[in-house]
């Protein structure tokens, strides 16, 4: 029986060049890291196709993140290997290409770190994940300079192995957090308690029930947690409006 991959830690690392990211993603996949456990952030991906305009947090959370295949064709084939690829606008950084589970974390940060409030930015979001503020500030600065942040969620007993892999690939500013990134649910959602705090904080009890029902229905059809999350947010958007606190709580009339 194959060994179950149980991610327990998140290793974060900076790379200076896009080609290093491409190489290290393939090496991680070859070592058995699932694509759903790899995240990338960057602002200077080389693209032969100019994107007219960027997508705001609200646009993305409403319509769902673009598929890896679409953005892979724009920003390089390696992005098509990851889930949840989209463009986010982050205070102090501007438009950022985000791939992997970090995309959903940034979209649903319970702290409102990416909502555009004064003083907020990537630092605020990363510290909610248990990262020291000084290290998060270094990552934000490196991203501002056009470099790339990669995060790999790995088993505790293989953390040393993957740290050496990232170092040998040219990674810098390596940091390990004793947690993994939040997902809406791991498998079917049986109750609101199964939702991650980041998702739950943005939904009223009624919207939580809508989210869960749609999420479970799509997951049962597709076995794809990312697609299920997209469709669940779409269902919430169709039936509710946001209140002044950014919580989906106002039921739409006639729905």
Short synopsis of the structure:
This protein is an alpha+beta fold. It has ten helices and eight strands.
Can you offer a commentary on this structure?
By secondary structure, this protein is α+β, with helices and mostly antiparallel strands. It folds into two domains: 9-177, no CATH class; 192-251, Rna Polymerase Sigma Factor, Chain: A (Orthogonal Bundle). It contains ten helices and eight strands. The strands form two sheets. The chain has a six-stranded antiparallel sheet with strand order 3-4-2-5-1-6, with helices on both faces. Mean pLDDT is 75; it is low at 47-74 and 109-119.
Feature tags:
255 residues, alpha+beta, Rna Polymerase Sigma Factor, Chain: A, 2 domains, 10 helices, 39% helix
In round numbers, the mean pLDDT is: 75
Instruction: Kindly estimate the percentage of residues that lie in beta strands according to DSSP.
Output: 15-25%
Number of domains: 2
Helix/strand-derived class?
alpha+beta
Distance between the termini: 48 Å
Radius of gyration from the alpha-carbon trace, in angstroms: 18 Å
- How many distinct beta strands? 8
| Order of strands in the sheet with most strands | 3-4-2-5-1-6
Low-confidence runs of at least 5 consecutive residues: 47-74, 109-119
Share in helix: 25-40%
Indicate the topology.
Blueprint: E1 9-15, H1 18-30, E2 38-42, H2 57-63, H3 68-75, E3 86-90, E4 94-99, H4 102-107, H5 122-127, H6 133-144, E5 148-154, H7 159-168, E6 172-177, H8 197-200, H9 205-222, H10 225-239, E7 240-242, E8 248-251
Antiparallel strand pairs: 1-5, 1-6, 2-4, 2-5, 3-4, 7-8
Helix pairs in contact: 9-10
């Amino acid at each position: 029986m194959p060994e179950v991959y149980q991610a327990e830690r998140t290793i974060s690392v900076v790379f200076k060049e896009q080609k290093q990211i491409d190489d290290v993603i393939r090496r991680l996949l070859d070592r058995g890291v699932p694509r759903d456990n790899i995240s990338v952030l960057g602002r200077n991906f080389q693209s032969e196709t100019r994107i007219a305009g960027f997508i705001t947090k609200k646009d993305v959370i409403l319509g769902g993140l673009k598929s890896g295949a679409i953005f892979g064709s724009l920003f390089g084939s390696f992005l098509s290997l990851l889930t949840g690829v989209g463009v986010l606008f982050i205070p102090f950084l501007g438009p950022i290409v985000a791939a992997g589970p970090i995309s959903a974390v940034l979209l649903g940060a319970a702290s409102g770190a990416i909502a555009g409030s004064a003083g907020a930015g990537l630092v605020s979001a990363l510290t909610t994940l248990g990262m020291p503020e000084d290290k998060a500030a270094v990552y934000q600065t490196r991203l501002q300079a056009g470099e790339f942040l990669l995060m790999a969620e790995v088993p505790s007993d293989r953390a040393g192995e993957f740290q050496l892999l990232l170092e040998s690939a040219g990674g810098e500013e390596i940091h390990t957090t004793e947690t993994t990134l939040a997902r809406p649910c791991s498998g079917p959602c049986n109750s609101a308690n199964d939702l991650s705090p980041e998702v739950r904080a943005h939904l009223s009890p009624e919207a939580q029930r809508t989210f869960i029902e749609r999420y479970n229905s799509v997951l049962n059809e597709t076995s794809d947690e990312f697609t299920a999350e997209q469709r669940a947010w779409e269902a919430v958007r169709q039936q509710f409006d946001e209140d002044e606190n950014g919580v989906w709580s106002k039921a739409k009339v006639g729905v």
